[in-house]
């Protein structure tokens, strides 16, 4: 009988070992135990002088400190948008910002915000004298967008063919392509396109907005495995900081 129970205990141990894998999610219990991902892109989160900065970064740091679970700036990961977007969906315990909330993205995340709003715009060289009266007029031009960004979604929703869309990982490269005439139009956030051009040593005075899309709101996008109590904790902390008017967003 003793031999039977000994063999049974070994069997249970083996089953338990194979039932658990390192990839199993471990639920975070504090805000500073989550993984935070952003991109370097004007105007809400960007790297300047080798340091991650921007209103959305400041908001996150202030909110986490207010909630008693301070996040360190150096622990925020900076990744190309498309990669960060995929990683945030996979999780575990991952937060992506600043993320525009759209119907296409709704089911992929839990949402905290809104934290800001912005319109996407179409930018062109002034010397080209391009005019658009409606989005469908874009069909005659090559338009650049950041891969995985809401600008790409807008182009596809309008019906622009894939052959007339140029996708790159970084917005700075798109500004340079526009300046060189390799693309005709560039779709990007209205608040950040000028600063992006300046960072590439380009003069924004040589460019102009030729079309403005309706504004959309930015959020923190949280992977679906994050506990609801943490989602609510971050929302309350964000609301508290925004209501205090400590930061300009």
UniProtKB/TrEMBL annotation:
InterPro entries per the UniProt record, alphabetical: Solute-binding_3/MltF_N
Specify the Solute-binding protein family 3/N-terminal domain's residue ranges: 39-247
| Pfam families to which the protein is assigned, alphabetical | SBP_bac_3
Known SUPFAM superfamilies for this protein? Periplasmic binding protein-like II
Q: Name the domain of life this protein comes from.
A: Bacteria
Report what the protein is called: Solute-binding protein family 3/N-terminal domain-containing protein
Species of provenance: Cognaticolwellia beringensis
């Amino acid at each position: 009988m003793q031999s039977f129970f000994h063999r049974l205990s070994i069997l249970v141990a083996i089953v338990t070992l194979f039932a658990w894998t390192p990839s199993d999610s471990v639920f975070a219990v504090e805000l500073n135990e989550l993984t935070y991902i952003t991109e370097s892109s004007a105007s809400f989160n960007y790297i300047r002088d080798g340091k991650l900065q921007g209103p959305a970064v400041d908001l996150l740091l202030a909110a986490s400190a207010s909630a008693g679970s301070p996040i360190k700036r150096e622990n925020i990961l900076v990744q190309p948008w498309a990669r960060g977007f995929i990683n945030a969906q996979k999780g575990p315990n991952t937060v992506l910002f600043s993320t525009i909330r759209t119907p296409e993205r709704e089911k992929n995340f839990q949402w905290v915000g809104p934290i800001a709003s912005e319109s996407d715009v179409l930018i062109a060289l002034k010397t080209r004298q391009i005019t658009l009266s409606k989005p469908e007029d874009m069909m005659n031009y090559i338009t650049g967008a950041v891969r995985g960004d809401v600008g790409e979604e807008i182009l596809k929703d309008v019906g622009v063919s894939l052959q007339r869309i140029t996708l790159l990982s970084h917005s700075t490269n798109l500004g340079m392509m526009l300046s060189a005439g390799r693309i005709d139009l560039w779709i990007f956030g209205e608040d950040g396109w000028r600063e992006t051009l300046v960072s590439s040593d380009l003069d924004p005075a040589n460019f102009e907005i030729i079309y403005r899309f309706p504004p959309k709101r930015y959020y923190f996008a949280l992977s679906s495995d994050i506990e609801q109590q943490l989602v609510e904790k971050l929302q309350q902390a964000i609301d508290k900081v925004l209501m205090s008017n400590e930061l300009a967003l």
